Amino acid sequence: MKCLIYSPNSQTKWMKDYFPDVHPFFLKILNKPLLEYYIDFCVINNISEIRVMINNSSRVLEEYFEDGTQWGVKLSYNLAKPEDNLQKILFKNSNFCKDEKLFIIQGYQFLHYHKEKKQYRFLQSSENTKLGDVKNGLFLLDRTNILNSKLEEIEECEEPELGITQIDGIKKYFALNISLLKEHNQEYVLPGYNNDKDEFIGKNVVCANFKELKKPIMIGDNVQIKSKANVGPNVILGNNVIIDSGTKVEQSIIYDLSYIGSDLEIIDKIIYKKRLIDPFSGEFTHIVDNFLVSDIQEKLVQRFFKRLLNSVSAFLLAIIGLIPYIFFCLLHRLGRLRSKKREFYVNRNAKTKIFTIWKVAKPNFISTLFFRLSLNKYPLLWAVVKGDIYLVGNHLIPKCPQGLIKMNNLPSYHPGIFDYSDMLPSKVSDIEFELNELYYCNNSSLWLDIKVFFRAIFNRIFSVWDRINERETRFPDKGDYVK
After folding, report:
1. For the segment 186-217, what is each residue's pLDDT rounded down to a tens digit?
2. Would 157 disulfide with which of 129, 175, 324, 387, CB 3.0-4.6 Å?
3. Would you give the DSSP letter of residue 453?
4. Are the C-beta atoms of residues 380 and 417 closer than 8 Å to each other?
């Protein structure tokens, strides 16, 4: 048996206002993409080939699901025009549809099934059958004469043991998530550990001692919940989320990559990037404050003052470090040091500048001391003096595909010589690094910059070499240097 999945563009137009950059099949329900539920159902019922019809190509969707190998199925994609109906889709995919029974998921909907149930009467039928209609429904077509089947005339299956819920708006989407979390969370394969009933906890979750979690609750990967936060019941936290101290979150969905500030109350809401959504009225607000992941709008006077302060400080540091830097440059061969030029992003508009950076082939006393004294960063001080970057800011991202993705995932980007992760004494994982960048974007201040600068200098002097060299190799080297 094969499966054909098609959702007309007209049924997902409502998403544009709320989730403008999310592919419909990648919209998450209980922290899991909708398409993955379809695939799970197919796996349970021994359906080995799946064809997904999409209105436009989605790199995120195709990179996540790839060819379906992870689920043990053969997954393929094909484009559909907005005006195509199901009959046209069948003709366009005639080679895929022939030779075997065909299970069709038509429309934008959620399937209600149970992960432990291996057989469904609907899929055991020897004749053409349907559940729903040609706009939103399930079809089972016999291998013979599939292309000439009159879909409207197919009889409805009695007692199908399956259910479908059309997702036709933000209210229905919210209600579906909360209902599944409260009453049906044991019926599906869901992400996270489920050692306790009604509690799903992802990887790398850090909770302060003085916090309160109320079930049912779902927490994604790489989540931080600070002290005195009150989370739950009926709360879904996505991946890479920070809930700051004293904040209450109840009956709400917090989508991936969100920062919720301190002493707030979030009840009956959906938060997606810059949008605070009321699922009952359908209204949403664009947040331009640092309590949520959003672009931080600095006042021009504040920005000018920060640039001026950074330039003056960098100039003084450059004067102090000039003689030691020249001395080590003369010894660079003994220290196996080599300088190269590399192109870096300096703002969110993808503007770039070329800076000199230092690398070391094999560390010895001279090269280690050069890095411990932060003299490898000396050329960057003049970039701060010119106002291209800051002394303290976001991690300086080189021009490369991976770097562009990282920058676009940040709510704001103000590159600096030192970043928040540099002040931490222990080595940080890639996930912790991303969370630190997110935290800095939403909490940057003069006091924080001062603290980061002095702690980073201290750490470089006394840390082990691997910790010092860690940030220098954060992004791949191949093909990124300027000749």
Report:
1. 999 999 888 788 999 998 888 877 678 899 99
2. 129
3. H
4. yes
Cβ atoms < 10 Å from Cβ of 364: 14
Q: What is the pLDDT of residue 35?
A: 96
Cα–Cα distance measured from residue 76 to residue 96, given in angstroms and rounded to the nearest whole number: 10
pLDDT higher than 60, residue 153: yes
How do residues 338-364 score in pLDDT, each as one tens digit?
888 999 998 877 788 999 988 887 888
Nearest to 198 by CA among 175, 220, 181: 181
Question: Mean pLDDT over residues 244-264, rounded?
Answer: 89
DSSP letters spanning 131-184: EE-SSSEEEEE-STTGGG--GGGSPBPSS-S-EEEE--SHHHHHHHHHHHHHH-
> Which residue in the block uniquely carries the two structure tokens 């001391």?
369
CA nearest to 406, candidates 444, 438, 449: 438
Per-residue pLDDT averaged across 142-170, rounded? 82
Interhelix angle 300-330/378-385, rounded to 10 degrees, is 150
Reply yes or no: is the peptide bond before residue 216 cis, omega within 30 of 0.
yes
- Nearest partner of 187 among 204, 208, 167, 162, judged by Cα: 162
Round to whole Å and give the CA distance between 456 and 200.
36
Is residue 270 a contact partner of residue 177, using CB atoms and an 8 Å limit?
no
- 132: alpha, beta or left, given left = phi > 0 and alpha = psi -120 to 50? left
User: How many Cα atoms sit within 13 Å of 246 on the Cβ side?
Assistant: 5
